[in-house]
Specification:
8-stranded mixed beta sheet; 6 helices; alpha+beta; Nitrilase/N-carbamoyl-D-aminoacid amidohydrolase
């Protein structure tokens, strides 16, 4: 049995504007520096940190090749700060787009990549599902990666049972919408403790904050959804205790978590057909709705010649012209204490 050990982890909760790849990465850089200053060995950034989030073909313009702006940014910051750091980006690969999480290592390398499988609501119209493994083996231990909706499904829960990770990271780009906002907030707040208690391992949940936008609805011209990203990044220890949580503001949450083999458990698989942790309201109806939308999305995606053309237009890394390579790395964050949030949660302003 491995010896018990502690690891300092951090979640970077920032705004992310759709289509502003370089600006979003530059903005997040200060918060990564603060996480490293606090001694974080593992830093987790939100899903689609650079691309933003919208149900529209315009998101394809934020597509990146493997080794493009986001991976370059991750590897550079990982080496500069001597940390593991990960984020997901919109990866263009051949004719397809994937939601890919990359974890960079302290030497500037890449420990591994995980692609999202579960595509909720209208995501399936714009990205491709991937059933490949959801774990990355690192010097810190085996890390399971659940990208947003993956975490909320029974199939991901069953993967975690089989893969036996030491820690789970859960990058989200989870917006509240006018009707379902309470359910989204409930899911974000409870999913980390749910997995941590079930498996006896730490969980890092991260989401965007202070970001609003309006998204079209595929097939319904003139109608749209108002997205409001409200944070709730949470660090939960292997005993199920919530150590830090950050509500709707930008900042960093960090905490020391314990990887203790004596705490690890192998729970029974979920009894529900869709959910890892069913919502309190209409679980069967909502589960069926997500299944149907995912299948409809796969059909629309497969039939889209526009998607294929957009993916082919994404330039390979050598031809990418992006500002991330010239961003100056500096620890320019000035903490702004808040008496209403937990002591490990701090927001920042960037020196100009």
């Amino acid at each position: 049995m491995k010896a018990a050990r502690s690891v300092r982890v951090a979640a970077v909760q920032v705004r992310s504007d759709s289509g502003q790849v370089d600006a979003n990465l530059a903005h997040a850089q200060t918060y990564v520096a603060e996480a490293a200053r606090r001694g974080a060995e593992l830093v987790v950034c939100p899903e689609f940190l650079a691309a933003g989030y919208v149900y529209d073909a315009s998101i394809w313009r934020s597509g990146e090749p493997r080794g493009g702006p986001t991976e370059t940014w991750l590897r550079r910051l990982a080496k500069h700060h001597g940390i593991h750091i990960g984020a997901s980006y919109l990866e263009a690969d051949g004719d397809d787009f994937f939601n890919t999480f990359t974890l960079a290592t302290p030497d500037g390398g890449v420990a591994g990549r995980v692609r999202k499988e579960s595509l909720p609501a209208f995501e399936g119209w714009f990205f491709k599902s991937c059933t490949q493994p959801k774990v990355i083996d690192t010097a810190l231990g085996r890390i399971a990666v659940g990208i947003c909706q993956d975490n909320h499904t029974a199939r991901f829960f069953r993967r975690v049972i089989a893969d036996d990770p030491d820690l789970i990271v859960m990058p989200h780009s989870a917006p509240c919408v006018p009707i379902g906002g309470p359910l989204v907030r409930q899911g974000l707040a409870e999913i980390g403790p749910h997995y941590a208690s079930a498996f006896g391992i730490p969980v890092v949940v991260v989401n965007k904050a202070r970001t609003t936008c309006r998204s079209p609805i595929p097939g319904l011209p003139g109608l749209g959804l108002r997205f409001d990203f409200r944070g709730l990044s949470t660090i939960t220890d292997s005993d199920g205790a919530v150590l830090e949580q950050l509500r709707n503001r930008e900042g960093v949450v960090s905490a020391e978590v314990h990887l203790d083999p004596s705490r690890k458990r192998k729970p029974d698989p979920p009894a529900t057909f869709y959910w890892s942790r069913p919502p309190r309201v209409l679980p069967r109806t909502l589960g069926a709705m997500f299944v149907v939308l995912e299948e409809l999305g796969k059909i629309a995606y497969a039939r889209s010649p526009r998607r294929r053309r957009a993916a082919r237009l994404v330039q390979p890394p050598a031809a990418c012209v992006n500002a991330t390579s010239s961003l100056r790395i500096s620890d320019t964050a000035r903490p702004v204490a808040s008496p209403t949030d937990s002591p490990g949660a701090t927001s920042f302003r960037t020196s100009k």
